[in-house]
Specification:
With about 425 residues, the chain is α/β, with parallel strands linked by helices. The chain is about 30% helix and about 20% strand. Strands 9-7-5-2-10-1-11-16-20-21 form a 10-stranded mixed β-sheet, with helices on both faces. Strands 15, 17, 18 and 19 form a 4-stranded mixed β-sheet that branches. The protein has a 3-stranded antiparallel β-sheet with strand order 12-14-13, covered by helices on one side. A hairpin with a 7-residue loop joins strand 20 and strand 21. The longest helix has 21 residues. The radius of gyration is 22 Å and the shape is globular. The protein binds guanosine-5'-diphosphate. Guanosine-5'-diphosphate (GDP) binds next to helix 1 and strand 3.
Length: about 425
Amino acid sequence: MVRAVVGANWGDEGKGKITDMLASDADIVIRFQGGSNAGHTIINDYGKFALHLLPSGVFNPNTTCIIGNGVALNIPKLFEEINDIVSKGVPNPNILVSDRAQILMPYHVLFDTCEEARLAGKSFGSTKSGIAPFYSDKYAKIGIQVNELFDDEVLKERVEKICVLKNCMLVNLYNQPPLVPEELMDTLHQYRDMVAPYVCDVSLYLHNAIKEGKNILLEGQLGSLKDPDFGIYPMVTSSHTLAAYGALGAGIPPYEITNITTVVKAYSSAVGGGAFVSEIFGEEADELRRRGGDAGEFGATTGRPRRMGWFDCVASRYGCRVQGTTEAVLTVLDVLGYLDEIPVCVGYEIDGEVVRDFPATALLEKAKPVLKVMPGWKCDIRGIKKYEDLPEACRNYVEFIEKELEVPIRMVSNGPRRDEIIYR
Ligand code: GDP
């Protein structure tokens, strides 16, 4: 059985916690897109961890963790993360890296940084992890696949071609010293030696695992609204964040993904620029950010303060739809316990008309939120294990959202810890 765990919103929905929880009976967890540009925060018996590139299954000794071909593979970062968790007492994880994954190079980070500086106030708010230059190169066919590390002739030819193109921009646009092919070759040789023990024909491995009936989890990063096609383009990420891409980014047939578990946050938060219709500001936002604690304040990778907003039915219903959600998980519900009344955004007013369907970017920029106010429950719901034991106003909030999402909410998360989950 293959299940994808993905986000309905702008990221930071709490996918890491849900994946870590579901990984306890998964044989395999795979990252299929993105790189070390976002993070999952996980709190479990070993402590608190911010994972960026490692799949959230690394804490389970029986789980094989895979970096799929769709990922932007930053080899030094991968090893930094492995060393970090092992130094904190986590058993050495079983890791496989796809022989078709491409390598994120230091010059990708350099280009990302130079371009953000060049754009200055008009920048994308990139994390400067090299993700956009990496995926641009992949599709321009000047990337380097892991399997190519083992053929020096191919590698040398590729590196020379890359240097000609890159140096043109580095020297003339960014006023930087040019790349030196021999230095890139040295870096690639180091990467080859680091990654060699983990390289695997992942698609074949998964083909066999599926035949054997293994339990497989695809772990998404960010959320629907950051997808390059279906998100708030151009303020999006550079790889697909939708479950459909799980098939391509891991190397499995699309029809094998039978369960799509979409994580939905009980209020809105976003890192980076772009339209955010239900956004709130000032003291109201500061309070929600403070109450959110780890879930509210800062992005796990960027450390940037998150933008805050009320739950957005329009964006979240769309977010669930484009994922192909079979079940939703509502997270961080506990954080809302302080509010007398909880506004939710139920429609967008665009040019005097109210719509329920999430529009493309040009119209989205004009949208104003239509709010409905729900009564709060005014208590701490952490520690509650049964759905029936939640206060009535809290159940009403969940059930209202479920109706709006048009998909079943099967789990409600009421705290950051693995065991703080209510099944319905
Ligand atoms: P991800 O990228 O979707 O995995 O999300 P992040 O890890 O960036 O952000 C989720 C944050 O919320 C983390 O700090 C989690 O520990 C925390 N978290 C997850 N679920 C809950 C929950 O139900 N309640 C609270 N209070 N925090 C949660």
